[in-house]
Write a structure and sequence with these properties.
Structural class: mainly beta
Number of strands: 6
Radius of gyration: 16 Å
Strand order of the largest sheet: 2-1-6-5-4-3
Largest sheet: 6 strands, mixed
Distance between the termini: 26 Å
Strand content: over 45%
Order of helices and strands: HEEHEEEE
Number of helices: 2
Oligomer: single chain
Helix content: 10-25%
Amino acid sequence: WWNSDSIFKERLFTDDAMLYPNGKTPIRGKEGMQKFWFVPSDTITTINTYETKIEEIYGEKNLAYIVGSNELNWSTEKKDKTELKRFVSKGYFIAVYVKRNKQWKILKQSWSGKTDEVK
């Protein structure tokens, strides 16, 4: 469910959206986001669970935000099946939405947290 088609063709983000990943340089636009999330690799990434807890929602006519926490569990496996690793990331996020052409889209998204390998 989490692939470049679902993120970009379904237009979850505005064309001028920005991501602010934890500890990394901000990323501008859909092309930059696609390069960030979908790096060519010799591994297959599987999202095992993703839980979000919304702490606060605020909105007006054309602007809204959501603040919350999340936990992401995923695994990576070499395509030749020689190595399997599991990870967990827990943190906080804020997402700013704008309403454009009667659709709500993400304009800015920032997250913090810590990722650990699960042994």
